[in-house]
Amino acid sequence: MRNTWLIIRREYLERVRSKAFIIFTILTPVLVAALVILPSKLMTMKSGKAQSIAVVSPDPAIAAAIQQQLIQPSNTGSDDDELSAQKFTVMLDGAPSEQLRTSLNDQVSAGKLDGYLWLTQDNIAKRKVTYATRNSSDLMGASIIQSALRAAFIRNALAEKGIAATDADSILSRVSLDTIRIEKGKETRSSSIAAFMLPFVLMFMIYMTVIIYGVAVMRSVIEEKTSRVVEVLLSSVRPMELMAGKIIGVGAVGLTQMLIWCTCIAALGTPGFVAAKAYLKDVQIPAPVFILFPIFFLLGYLLYAALYAAVGAMVNSDEEAQQVQWPVLLPLIACTVFASAVIRQPNGQLAFWLSLFPLTSPIIMFVRVASQMPPIWQVLLSIAILVATIYAVVFICARIYRVGILMYGKRPTLPEIIKWIKYA
């Protein structure tokens, strides 16, 4: 036990004191905040310059309705903030003709116009409009114009049926949906988008941490094997002690990093939550999440760290490790592939069996907990199966580690690995 503790201490201090750990710990929260908050803010940021759009239509009523919707959009189904984020100046250029189209193309090319909408009688009948612009990659602007066109066509159709403009606005007004979460007979306000995204965010926290520190265990084993340091270590400690020390030491580094991130969020999160209140106002984190997150994180890490340690013992270089580690990575990748289906139906058959299968249960069961708390017996059964699997995997991987750590040269074949397990 003393030897294991010394290895844990060495692995922990060596990584915590490294520049890579310090830089990664500081930059990760900054990058995550930038990737999550900044793109949304930039997309909805009001532009200082209004876009100049020309509308060409043989029907003056349609043209006027489009102009009205672009300048003063009615609440017809799009997000109000999105509609007000971009301003337009709209000119009506009469009936379409080839001469007019050539003139408009020249104005767009010269920068006098940002674009124009081209409608013919056939376009109006088919409800298919051509939008010519200098910047076809402006997805936000195209979405706003499409919403305005839809509202204009509907308003015009209702006007032809004798419905007044004020009545049309009432008919077309956007319907707000308030999502209420019911759990144990209690109602709590919730956002459907937040309820969908929260399990994704928490899942990727486990996913990325397990991969990052599992690979760290593997590379540590490869480094000591290639440098022959392991031969010196094995003269003083048993292979099982060395493997356990590496797994626990690197895992402690991961927990330290997550503790630092959580502390930073608690200390500095208030200004960020205020800035992102529009996105986070209805986020409700269930209480079991706080209890089960560290449990599934630790169990998932122990399982995959043992597998990665065995991979490191089998290979002789990082290049070989990249090829051999794919069987270990595939269950984790499968978790991300099936995550959206599990979030939509957390009590379905797919979610149930994936949450019991030990290679996917650390992530999938936690996703189910964050989405909708499953029956407690399923959670306990998943943990029990996972613990039993970890014991079996550590036993097998320790045998591979014991023989493979001293093997050099070619990469072992599957029959050779089976022999290691039998005779170690």
Low-confidence stretches: 76-85
Q: What is the spatial order of strands in the main beta sheet?
A: 2-1-3-4
| Helical content (DSSP H or I, runs of 4+) | over 70%
How many structural domains in the coordinates? Answer: 2
Rg, please? 30 Å
Structural class given helices, strands, pairing?
A: alpha/beta
> What pattern of helices and strands is seen along the backbone?
HHEHHEHEHEHHEEHHHHHHHHHHH
Estimate the global geometry from the Cα principal axes: elongated
Largest sheet: 4 strands, mixed
- Tally of DSSP helical segments: 19
Query: Termini separation (Å)?
Result: 21 Å
Give the strand tally.
6
Percentage of β-strand residues = 5-15%
Mean pLDDT: 76
Tell me briefly what this model is.
With 424 residues, the chain is of the alpha/beta class. Helix content is 71%, strand content 7%. It has 2 domains: 50-176, 3-Layer(aba) Sandwich (D-Maltodextrin-Binding Protein, domain 2), CATH 3.40.190; 184-423, no CATH class.
Please tag this protein with its features.
424 residues; alpha/beta; D-Maltodextrin-Binding Protein, domain 2; four-stranded mixed beta sheet
